[in-house]
């Protein structure tokens, strides 16, 4: 008996599958729309599941090429390579460079390099070669004029758009700081990275939830595409003898097949196409190799299994509100069955309850699982409260207004559920983004600090320690080299030393330069060669300072010095001595020089010309462009990841709304054609379509603003940050969301005009 029942159930589910695949043109179209909608969501979910492999691939290649470890003495052998690191940038893009010199016949090779070219030539990454060969790279070509002998393979790059070069030289001396002797690559950096602070950890958690939750909601909504047509088909099945339970199993089979096709389409065509195009795009400075875009097997299996099961659950839940009879379909409208509010309120309240214990938690006590659950429940509150709010407000709309408004209102009152489901995705994304903006503003204030730089006196600082690749002879030589760059309007170069007084651990800063350079560092009463000045330091005249880092460094007797007032942005709180050359300590073997550089800020390429001039002085000369604020690298990395992910999510939201709108228009094509046939204007119908989308969106954005602010306030309370409402961010998020809806409506107009043709009245 049980075997017979199981066979019957399998047969009924199989009938639903056959209806999905062989139910004529209408059935195939509905199945195709559902599959496309599911495929869009599955594609993004698979990309999200690939993030761990993308990060691990980038990290593994970065560690495999690592050569910046210290404290290791390498014995002589024919595998030794001398290496000098060069960290540069070009128009905001970092440039990773290495000058190398083989010591033996079989030098060790960095990852991605098959052999080292002769001295005077270099290997470059494909992206850097393309840039150097293009007109846009002319300034960079001046900086690195060596002959390009080949390219670096993927094993030596963290991304396809990374700018990397390896230049072979014959004048690298190990007696100079920065030159290392290597017999291998890949030693991981010394020390573990500090864990993320609670604020950054919470920011990452919220980003993941906010970006992925709308995707999951859209996948669930896509499984209900064409629900009205499916219900009519089920009524026909009942007419030939099926009971209610059988129709449910037929609908389940149809939903599972459509969702499974979406999984195959998303995992095949869309995902493979996305991988193929991955290397062509760079978002927020992040580029990835195609081979890195691989979902974690466990997560991929979870997606493959969960999506069809979610389609099955959503379909069965939707059928609970529909009575399929042999002669038609009866929908339990909101007017007859009022939506209950009590359980909808419980959802966001439960989210608040999960987040409340996290207030004031430090990094060790912070519970990411509790944070994820709380944020998910609060955002889910938007999805469950919006249908109730929609029914209460739209049901009160009367017959006032123009014809397009009346058509829209009546349609929303009779069958607005599909529109609300589509808008739910936008509302949840908007609520999460508003909360994220509030938390993001707090994090930016926490991890962005004013530098205190006075940009009216200098716009850049250069610093260099004597290097044999480009010998530094004197401050005058540095001044002349930097001034040769077009757009540099002034340079003040000084030498920097550090000294300790006796056994005191405090180090006094000693700056040596001519009077013009010293006046850029402090307010001097008068100055001539032979003078010395004290800034923020006690009277050190006649006292002996030990220069350098070691206790046996050279001694220098401080000459008679007069007090001076330092500029607020130059020496900060460091105490020290300013001296002119004739009374300065001797120049050490590894002298460090700094230069204050004034730039023509109206010249867009002046920074690149300055870096080129600095490279001619020495490859080790660093160039720091002064800014009023500085952001920590960890926060900047999270911010770049947010921008990249948000772009993908916004694209999905727009595409999902477009697919949903087209599906609704397709189901109403005969109604639209009939209205036009009876004299309704196309413009009137077009405006009614806009109103049908705008009203739920307005309600959804209003609810999203309220719950988003509540969520943001709770998150700020968790990290003990004062609650401040950023109305500009709230308005911008709402405006962007409304703009997406408007663009989707405009994009659906061609399909609407086509569906309103008289041939839309044909019926098979």
UniProtKB/TrEMBL annotation:
Keywords: Cell membrane, Membrane, Transmembrane, Transmembrane helix. Residues 646-755 form the ABC3 transporter permease C-terminal domain. Pfam families: FtsX. The chain crosses the membrane at residues 28-49, 199-223, 255-278, 298-320, 341-359, 371-390, 641-660, 697-720, 727-753. InterPro entries: ABC3_permease_C, Membrane_comp_ABC_pdt. It is a multi-pass membrane protein. It is found in: Cell membrane. This is ABC transporter permease.
């Amino acid at each position: 008996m049980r075997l017979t029942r199981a066979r019957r159930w399998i047969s009924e589910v199989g009938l639903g599958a056959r209806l999905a695949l062989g139910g004529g043109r209408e059935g195939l179209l509905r199945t195709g729309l559902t599959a496309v909608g599911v495929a869009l969501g599955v594609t993004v979910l698979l990309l999200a599941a690939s993030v761990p492999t993308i990060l691990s691939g980038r990290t593994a290649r970065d560690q495999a090429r690592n050569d910046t470890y210290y404290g290791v003495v390498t014995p002589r052998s024919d595998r030794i390579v001398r290496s000098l690191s060069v960290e540069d940038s070009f128009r905001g893009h970092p440039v990773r460079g290495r000058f190398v010199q083989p010591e033996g016949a079989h030098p060790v090779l960095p990852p991605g390099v098959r052999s080292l070219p002769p001295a005077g030539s270099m290997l470059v990454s494909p992206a850097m070669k393309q840039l150097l060969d293009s007109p846009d790279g002319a300034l960079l070509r001046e900086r690195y004029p060596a002959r390009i002998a080949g390219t670096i393979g993927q094993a030596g790059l963290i991304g396809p758009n990374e700018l990397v070069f390896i230049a072979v030289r014959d004048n690298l001396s190990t007696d100079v700081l920065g030159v290392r002797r290597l017999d291998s690559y890949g030693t991981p950096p010394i020390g573990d990275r500090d864990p993320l602070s609670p604020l950054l950890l919470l920011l990452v958690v919220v980003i993941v939830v906010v970006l992925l939750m709308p995707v999951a909601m859209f996948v669930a909504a896509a499984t209900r595409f064409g629900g009205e047509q499916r219900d009519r088909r089920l009524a026909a099945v009942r007419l030939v003898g099926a009971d209610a339970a059988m129709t449910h199993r037929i609908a389940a089979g149809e939903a599972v097949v459509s969702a499974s096709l979406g999984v195959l389409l998303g995992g095949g065509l869309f995902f493979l196409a996305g991988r193929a195009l991955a290397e062509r795009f760079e978002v927020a400075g992040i580029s990835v190799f195609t081979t890195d875009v691989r979902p974690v097997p466990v997560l991929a299996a979870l997606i493959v299994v969960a999506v069809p099961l979610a389609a099955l659950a959503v379909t069965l839940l939707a059928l609970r509100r529909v009575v399929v009879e042999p002669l038609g379909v009866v929908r339990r409208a909101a007017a007859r069955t009022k939506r209950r509010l009590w359980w909808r309120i419980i959802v966001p309240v439960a989210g608040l309850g999960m987040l409340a214990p996290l207030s004031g938690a430090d990094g060790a006590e912070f519970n990411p699982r509790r944070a994820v659950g709380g944020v998910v429940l609060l955002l889910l509150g938007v999805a469950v409260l919006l249908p109730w709010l929609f029914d209460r407000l739209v049901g009160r709309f009367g017959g006032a207004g123009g014809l397009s408004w009346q058509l829209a209102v009546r349609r929303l009152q009779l069958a607005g559920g599909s529109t609300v489901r589509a808008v739910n995705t936008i509302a949840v994304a908007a609520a999460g983004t508003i909360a994220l903006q509030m938390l993001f503003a707090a994090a930016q204030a926490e991890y962005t600090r004013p530098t205190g730089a006075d940009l009216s006196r200098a716009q850049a600082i250069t610093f260099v320690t004597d290097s044999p690749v480009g010998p530094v002879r004197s401050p005058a030589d540095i001044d002349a080299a930097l001034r040769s760059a077009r757009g540099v309007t002034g340079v003040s170069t000084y030498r920097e030393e550090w000294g300790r007084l006796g056994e005191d651990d405090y180090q006094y800063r000693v700056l040596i330069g001519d009077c013009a350079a010293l006046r850029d560092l402090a307010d001097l009463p008068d100055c001539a060669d032979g003078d010395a000045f004290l800034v923020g330091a006690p009277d050190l005249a006649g006292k002996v300072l030990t220069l350098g880092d070691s206790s046996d460094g050279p001694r220098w007797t401080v000459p008679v010095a007069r007090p001076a007032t330092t500029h607020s942005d130059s020496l900060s709180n460091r105490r020290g001595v300013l001296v002119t050359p004739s009374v300065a300590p001797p120049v050490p073997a590894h002298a460090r020089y700094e230069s204050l550089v004034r730039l023509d800020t109206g010249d867009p390429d002046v920074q690149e010309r300055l870096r080129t001039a600095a490279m001619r002085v020495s490859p080790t000369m660093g160039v720091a462009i002064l800014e009023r604020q500085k952001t920590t690298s960890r926060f900047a990395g999270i911010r770049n990841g947010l921008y990249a992910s948000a772009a993908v999510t916004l694209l999905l939201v727009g595409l999902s709304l477009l697919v949903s709108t087209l599906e609704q228009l397709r189901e109403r094509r005969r109604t639209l054609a009939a209205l036009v046939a009876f004299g309704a204007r196309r413009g009137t119908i077009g405006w009614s379509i806009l109103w049908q989308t705008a009203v739920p969106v307005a309600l959804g954005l209003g609810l999203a603003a309220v719950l988003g602010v509540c969520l943001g306030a709770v998150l700020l309370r968790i990290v003990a940050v004062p609650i401040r409402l950023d109305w500009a961010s709230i308005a911008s998020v709402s405006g962007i969301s409304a703009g997406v809806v408007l663009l989707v409506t405009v994009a659906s107009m061609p399909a609407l005009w086509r569906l309103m043709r008289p041939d839309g009245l044909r019926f098979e």
